[in-house]
What does this fold into?
Amino acid sequence: MSKEKLPEYVVNTIEIVEQQRERPIGAFEVLQEIFMNDFMHTDMTLTPQFDKTFLWISKSDRNICSLLRAFKNGYEVGEPKYHVQVKGLNTVTNYLNYDTDDKDFYTDVPDFLDRSVSRFTKSWLAKNWSEYEAYNNAGLLEFEEVEND
It folds into this structure.
């Protein structure tokens, strides 16, 4: 089994809970701390961190399953994904998209077509978009981190 890839802030939340406990923890303890902190605000300094993790968990059934698998299979920080804007174009339609059928890049609003992808890791772009280095080195790309689905 491969390790589960979790957003960096989720891994940070797990590490915070581990530091608060004197024994090994599991998914139940992490969830308990997140929900307790969210509803009781037991530690206001941790509330933003725990709130972000709480929202990630509640966003999709896949996310809670991913957290549970992480405690079974191990976990690591997944590479962040970004919406990528190409500077100098119309600010509404300057988002990079990839047409999965035609295997081609174009700019428009994010996910313009059903068959398009508009969330990329930087390493995927570097491997699959021949112009990535030129645009990036020229400062023509703007990256906006998005949630991994």
In short: Strands lie at 4-6, 75-77, 81-86, 95-99, 104-108, 116-117, 141-146. Residues 27-40 form the longest helix (14 residues).
